[in-house]
Specification:
Elements lengths: L1 H26 L49 E3 L3 H11 L5 H11 L18 E3 L6 H12 L7 H16 L14 H10 L3 E3 L8 E6 L2 H4 L10 H10 L4 E8 L15 E6 L6 E10 L2 E8 L3 E5 L2 H6 L4 E9 L10
Parallel strand pairs: 1-2
Antiparallel strand pairs: 3-10, 4-5, 5-10, 6-7, 6-10, 7-8, 8-9
Amino acid sequence: MRRTTLVLWLSLVVAAGAAFLAVRWVTSPLDLGSRSHPGGRSPLRPAAPPSAAAPPSAAAPARQAGGGRTPIDPNLPLFIGGTRRLAAQAIDDTAAAPMNQALIALARRFQGTPYRALPMDQQTPERLLLDLEHVDQLRFVEQLLALVNSRQVKTRTEAADRFSDHVRDLRYHKGQVSYCGRHHYVSLWAQAAERQGYLVNLTPFLPGATSRRRSLTFLSSHPGAYPAMQLPANRTCITTLERTLAVDQSYVPLRSLAPVLPSLRSGDVFALVSQRPGLDVSDIGLVEVNGNQINALLAAAGSGVELKTDLARWAGGRDGVIGVAFYRPVPNSDGRPDR
C-alpha cells in the first residue's frame, strides 16, 4: 500500500512538470542559433533561389536592393563569344611545343581571324576583355604571349583562368584594369612586358641599332579616333598623362636591316617604328623564319591576321616607318615554368 501511494505521488509530480515545460515551449520564441547566425535566431526558411531560367548576364551588373546596380569588378575577365573554349583548345594543342614554335603555330591557326578593335575601346567602362574571335594588332601578340605562358596546367578551366591572368598583367599597369592604366603604346607595353619577364629587348644588341627620345601624345592629339576618349574621365586622365609621357626607343633603321635578319628566329616579336608625330609604333607582329625568308605574321586593319612575305621589304614600303624593333619572348617567371 505504501509503495502504491509513492508511485502515484511521483507520477503526479512528473505530469505537472511536463505540463509546465509544454506551456513554456508554446509561449516562448525559438532561439537555437546556427553557424551562420551564432547565438541568434535562425531564419524561418531559406530565401527563394534565383530563377534558373534567367541567369544573370556576365556583362550586366546585378541590381542592389535599393534599385541601383552593383558595380562590376573590372579586373574580372569577360570572355567574348567562344574565346574561353578557343583559349583552352589552343593551350592544349601546343602543350608540348617549344615556346617559339607554339607562338608561330597559334599565329598560323588564327590566320583569317577578322580585325576589330576590342570593345574596350568603345565608350564604356574598361573591362578585362578577352577576344580570340576578333583581333587588333597589339592584342593579337599580347594574347598569343598569354596563351603560350598558360600551358603548365591540369585542367582546361585552369588554363583559361591562367590565360586571363597573363593578359591582365601584360595589358595594364601593375595588372589593375583601367583605361588610363592600359598600355596604349607598343613601346611602353614592351617595356612593361620586359620588366615582368615576358620579353627580352634584342634591339640594343643588334648591329646598326640606334635610339631616340619620343614624346607620346597621339591619343590626346586624336581624341575623336577613340570612342572611349569621349568619356570625360578618360580624356582628362590621358591628356594629363601625355603632357609628360615619353619613351627612350631603340630601333634598327631600315637601311641596316639586312645584317640583322640572320639573328632572328621564328616567334620573335617585331615592331615597326613610326615617325608620325606623337606615335612610337605603327605595326606589331611575329617573325616567321622560313629558310632564308623572313616573314611577318600580324593582325592588319581591314584584313585580319595574315602573312606578309619578306619582312624587310614589306616594312620598307610602309608609310612613315623608319626602322624596326625586335623582342624575344621568354617563359614568364610566375612560379610555373613553361616547357
